[in-house]
Structure formats: C-alpha cells, structure tokens
Amino acid sequence: MLEVELPADYKELIHVYGVSNWDDYLYVLEPGCPNENYDLLEWAKNQAEDLEDLWEFEKKPTELEAEGSRVIPWATTDNGECLYWLVRPGHNSDQWTVMVNEARGDRWEHFSVSCTQFLASSLDGELHSSILSTSFPRATHEFRQLVAV
After folding, report:
1. DSSP codes, 62-125
2. Which of 2, 3, 13, 125 has the fewest CB atoms nearer than 10 Å to its CB?
3. Tally of domains within the chain
C-alpha cells in the first residue's frame, strides 16, 4: 500500500516494541496493526487525503515543495499532533527525516534525524519540539505495548 520500503531502524523498533505508547503521550504506529487506531497503513491513507485537502487552503511546508516529496505518518500523540517521515525523491528510507505537525494548525517542524533518533533524543531531553506537549517527555519514562482490540 505504501509502495516504499520502511526504514530499517523503524522496522527494528516495531520488532522490539510493536505498536507502543511512550510517556503516556506518543503512540508509535505499526503497519497492519489489528487496532486501526494505530495502523500505519490506515493513517497513511487518511493523512494523505486530509493533507491534500488542507493544502488547497494552507501553504505546504517548504520541505514538501520539491516535486515528489511527501510525508508518511509513523507516530501520533494523544493531543492529535502527527509525526511524519519526510520522503524525498532520490533518498532511500534510511535517509528519511522527521517532520512534526501541530494538531489543529499549520505549524510544522523539521528534524534532520531518523524516527528512532527523534524518539530517543526526545526522551532523553536532547531534542525539543515546540509543537509537542511541554509534559513530554516525563521525568520518569513510561512505556506500554498496546494490544489489539
């Protein structure tokens, strides 16, 4: 469905942790997850449609202006922010970087790191997003593997 190979670091993250919740805030999506709330394939389809509609009224982020560039969601938050891979022509999936979009607005941030680097660096406080909740990360981390419903 995605017609792309997912990044190796992400596949390893899913292999080890599966669909998961970090610090009771960030949800890592999984392709084919039985719980459609966390199914990366469903999210990718829905987000692509929603963003195309949105960009009829709002300006696309600069990073997406190049022909063939697009985003694929890999995580979401309990507030509705979405974390994407930035997919650019000529870049293999292990070169994809992270974009964060606010829940109900047009603010975007770009981070020149992989999804696992983003997650690890966010959790240890090295990386900070001004879009994500100020309560993320927590001082004491929490992890939950989510189960299918």
Report:
1. GGG-STT-EEEEEEEETT--EEEEEE-TT--GGG-EEEEE-TTSS-EEEESS-HHHHHHHHHTT
2. 3
3. 1
Give residue 86's domain range.
8-145
Which residue type occupies 52?
A: E
- Tell me the per-residue pLDDT of 78-97, one tens digit each, with 9 for 90 and over: 999 999 999 999 999 999 99
DSSP 26: E
Peptide bond into 137 cis (omega under 30): yes
- Domain assignment present for 3: no
Tell me the per-residue pLDDT of 94-126, one tens digit each, with 9 for 90 and over: 999 999 999 888 899 999 999 999 999 999 999
Whether 12 is covered by a domain: the verdict is yes
Work out the burial of residue 5: count CB atoms within 10 Å of its CB; fewer than 13 is exposed, 13-18 middle, 19 or more buried.
exposed
Q: Which residue has tokens 């870049």?
A: 91
Quick check: pTM over 0.70?
yes
Phi-psi region of 102 (alpha: psi -120 to 50; beta: other; left: phi over 0): beta
Query: In angstroms, what is the C-alpha Rg of the chain?
Result: 15
